Please model this.
Amino acid sequence: MKALSFDGSGIEYFKIWIVNVLLTILTLGLYHPWAKVRNNRYFYANSTLDGRNFEYHATGKQLFVGYLIAMALFITYVIINQISPTGSLILVAILFLAIPWLILRSMIFNMRMTSFSNVHFDFSGTLGRAYINFFAYPIALYLGLVLITIAMTMSISVGGVLAALLALVLALGMITFLIFALAFIKKKNTEYFMDHSQYGQGEFKTDVSIKEFMMISLKTTGVAILVMLITGIVVGVGFYATVGADSLMLFGGAEQDPELITEKIKSLMPVLPIFYLGVIIASIFIMAYSTTLNRNYVYANTRLDENVTFSSTLKVLPLAWILITNFIAIIMSLGFAFPWAKVRAARIMLENTQVNAEKGFDDYLMQKQNQTSSLGEQIGDAFDVDVGIGF
Amino acid sequence: MIYGKWYAKGSSAQSDAELQITDDTFVLKVKDGISYSALLHTLEVGSRLGNVARKITLEDGSVFATQDNNAIDLAFKKQLRGKGFMHSLESRMHWVLVALALTIISSIVFFKWGVPWASEKIAHALPHETNQLIASNTLEFLDKYIFEESMIPEKQMQKIRMHFKSKVVPLGSSNDEIRYKLHFRLWKDGDLNIPNALALPSGDIIVTDKFVQLCENQQEMDAVLLHEMGHIEHRHTLEMVIESTFVTVAVMMIAGDSNGVADMGVGLGSLLVSSNYSRGHESEADQYAFKHMLLAKLDPVAFSNIMNRITDYMQMPSGTTIKQKDNEAGTEVLDYISSHPSTKQRVEIARQYSECFHKGLTTCEIIEPAGSTLTLK
Model:
């Protein structure tokens, strides 16, 4: 077992990043594709395993046309969104229809533009499967929820003990269905992304189960409830200590006295950001928990041919710590700590990725690949479509 | 001697190799393998990025990769001429500091002046039909979800409309394309009757029943109607659409590669920027009203009178007036996210215009009150 490592540094990336940002502003965004290439090249090439590194191969020129079209579409979307509610509904529907295609094109483009140790990756997923995974399943999930909700409303409106009991059963059924359906979709998506990925002639294969994904989401829900409860208590105590509970009580009788209401609202102002901060930190923690569990599970059950196995040694607390301090640093520095934060995040992810290659990495050969257009990837980027398993 | 790794074309197999360069020829020796020797210019060298492994492609498509970036830069000086520009910016601390300063300055310039300036130019370059397009269905929408039918007697409506058409519109209108039309509506929020006036870019101005009721004289109503006409003449709705398009696209680029959590900070930033533009528009419409009132020999104090009355009414649901306490910590924070300048600032500017009015002037120099640094224009 060998861990990946990240060889870049925050200060080195800061220099690259700030030049990118400046050129992007000065060219009113036209430089963006070249900036993206430099960013990606930096992060890929600094990701190394045992003296071999990843590489990003796309060029600014290659991304440029796709980028211009994507921007034109995005600007049209933003304008129509503001002036016509019906028009924006139609656009959202079109976007929803296009998402599977966007995901597929992005996967193909990104994989082909990535190499490790001089051999490129590839993606062989089909459009049909993409539509089943990213269109049919989500719609089926939605329809299922609607059906159960209708049944529930009907049984409540009938009234009586039996109907109430039925409604309760349906409510439990809804939760079970939701957890099951989400785990099912997660399994299908993981398989879609992993099983169609190739490295040279090598093929990735994943073996994940619905049951395990259900366990993970149950655990995450439990942790989420607990964390939110604790946050509530901590914020409540902090609130009591700073503003005092009596001011809360007084709200009850304050309606008659508008001056008092204004006073109360003013005394609340400094506490509100702290409350929000608490909720945000709690959400980041929950996200770190979910990411860690999912990632560790998927990596442990994925292999490349019979040769290579993976494992993720990520732990919840260190990841949460990195993400929370990153968030605070970015906000406090008005965004200028972003490069440092990104390097830290990359480092913790890579250093917790273990690769076990019994026969080494010398036997992989580059396969013939056709030229690919960057259009789908650029549109997906502009509209912030989630691509890949996300860790 | 430059040490590195060699890969055959399309192969992941890695062999140690060393590159020796003399003048314009090179010798590349692969450990336990072939040895290349040819002219230097047959090699293809990639541009440098930080200290990541440098890739050199040979004529047969095989690759030599090395960490020794400095040696490569030195040996391939001639070939790399012009290619190292980005790296020389990125690697010199003083250029990075210049870039940092320029980035901060140009983002401020971009959001503070660039976006409003460009939006104004674009808004006024577009034909008036654009205004009608963005206003289409808006009144129907408001009627369906927000407004109720007005309770004002038909006769009073007629009178106000007549006055508006014959006295107010000729004062301000500079564009024959805009067809001004006055609408009366009842706007209720729970038990509260909301006093307000709104302008649609098409030239439709809507006044609510409570607003008409709160106006104590004709001049007060004219002042507000002129303010609304200011929005229409300056094409503020269109400007707002263009401004938010700029902001949204800029935000997409900034937040594009950040994670979801940092997006919240970006969202807050764009809210602040948008409310800033909106306050700029309000001040501009105020000034429009004041200037035209001076020209028409109307006392701009009427505007502050009605503004104060509306503010008092909204703060005191029961209807009795209370003293507004302004300028305390809480309200100051709220000022930054408010879409309108504070009544206090607006009243102060009205007061200055009113002074000019009493001196018999038709133009007026304004000293911006403290705190109006919040507004952009």
DSSP finds 13 helices and eleven strands in chain A.
